[in-house]
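pinned: reference chain
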Amino acid sequence: MAPADRPAVIAALRAVGVAPDEYGPTLNTAQSPPDVDVLGAALAEEIRAVAAPAALVVWDTSDEAVLAHVVARHLGVGVLRASEAEGLLALTPDLTSGTPLALLATQWGERRLATLRTLVANRGGRVVAVAAALASPALAAVADVPTAALAEAGDVAGVPS
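pinned: its structure tokens
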């Protein structure tokens, strides 16, 4: 699905840029808060078009948390953060069994997406959508729930694929 205002989304992606981080590529949210808001609104629109999550789940990095906050604000939902330390996985805050969740990232890698899906399932959550700012093979491989992406990695110069 393509965002309604694709030129604005591509411009916002180029303005903030993407950098490597502990859990995979992440938007440089400090570069331009107004552009992060453009991206958050577009991601919320894409998610809303395919699912009705009660919360978003992201890997706990500062930039992913900022993106999730903006998307969640536009959706009117909460945010859960996943982390991994010394092989132990955590999800904060706790969730109620059966809670419908959308998983969110700048760009999904296979391992991180699979790990997060397993963590959410083990905690009783129900994934209803998987979304990202940038498409990836891992996102394209999701077949059991709707997916959403704002752009292909190749649409934005300098963005890793």
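why pinned: The beta strands are 18-19, 26-27, 55-59, 78-85, 88-92, 100-107, 126-134, 147-151. The chain is about 35% helix and 25% strand.
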